[in-house]
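Entry:
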Amino acid sequence: MFTPLGVLANIANHALTILASPAQEPLNAATALGRPRHYDIQGHRGGRGIAVENTLASTAWGLIEGVSTIEVDNGITKDGVVVVWHDTSITPEKCVDTAPAFPGDPDFPYVGKFIANLTLAQIKTVDCGSKRQEAFPLQLTYPGIRISTLQELFDFVGCADPAHHIQWNIESKIDARHPNRTMDVDTFVSKQSAVFSASPYFSSITYESFDWRTLIAMKAYNPSMRLSALIDDDYGYMPDNSTSPWLAGLRLDSFPGPTQGQQVAQAAHAIGANILSPSAKSDFSPGEDPLMPDYMAFTTGDMVDEAHKFGMEVKVWTVNHFNLVEHVLALNVDGIITDYPDALRRLLKYNNIPAAPKYPKQRVLACLNEHLARQSVTLN
C-alpha cells in the first residue's frame, strides 16, 4: 500500500529552508504564472446557491451561468467508488430515503449513515434533490436526483463541454480527526487518481484538500497534478495548541512568518502546493461583511503577497457578499469560490474584469436531461 510517510519525513527540513531559497518574482496581472485570460469564478459545490449542491443539476447551472471552474467534493463508498458528495454521511437535511437496494437490507434506512459504510447501490436509492436548503432560498430543487459518481459527472460535463474547456477543483472529503468516518488517505488518493487519469479532463484538474496528507500523496501518484491547500482557523490551529491533524504534521507557528498570514503561505509552499485556498473570513469573525467593525479576516494582504512571492495562486472561499468580493479583489486574489457564480460574474463584468463565456443553455439542459434519465429522474 502506498504511504506518504516517506515524503512527509522530508517536509520538516524543507519547511526550515524555504525562505533561504530565492523567491520568485511577485505576481501581477501580466505574469506568466498561468493565470487564465478570464478571472477564475469557481462554482462552489457546482453552484449551490442556484441548485441542489454537488449534483449534475448544480453543475449544469454553474456552466450556464459562466463558471470557469467547477468545484466539487468527493467521498469514497464502501465498495470503493468515487462519488460526488460533501458530507461524510448522507445528511437528513439534504436527502430522503426511497427504498432499500434489495429486500430486507439490514442497512436500510440509509440517510444518516456514513458514505464509507454504504455501497454505491445503496446510495443510489437516496433522493438528494427534493429538499431546498434553508440558507439558499433561491435554490432549484430536482426531486429524485441521485448522488452521482465522479465518472458520471465527468461524462455529463463532457456532453455539455465537448471541447473540454472547463476547469475542475476537486476536493477529497477525508476526515483527519475521525478516521473511522471516511476511507483512509491511500484509498482516497488511489481511487480518485484512477478516475482522474482516465478522464480527458486530467490536465484541467486541481486537487484540493484540508487534509494536506492527501495532497502529498496525490503528488506522489501524479507529479503533474496541481494541488490546492485548503485552510482556515479550524483546520490550521487546535484549541489546545496541539499539532493539527490536517496539515501533514506541520505546525504553522514553526514557520518564520512573521505574521500568521505569511506562515500559512509558507506552510502551503512547503508541501508543494500550487494554490493556497484560504477562507476569506476568520472562523472567529462575528460579522460577515468586511465593512462591519467586528469583521475579522483570515485571508490578508500579507498572506496573498507571500503566496505570490512563492509563485502560488490564491483562491478564496466561500465568498457570497459583494462587499467581501470587492475586499478580496483588492487583495489581488486569483480566484473566488462562491455559491453564487451568476452574481459574481455580474459584478466582475460590471467592473470590466473579464469572465469566461457562458455555456449554451439549451445544450447544457439537453445533456442534463439525457444524463438524469440514466438515473431514472424525470424533470418537469
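The first helix runs from residue 5 to 17.
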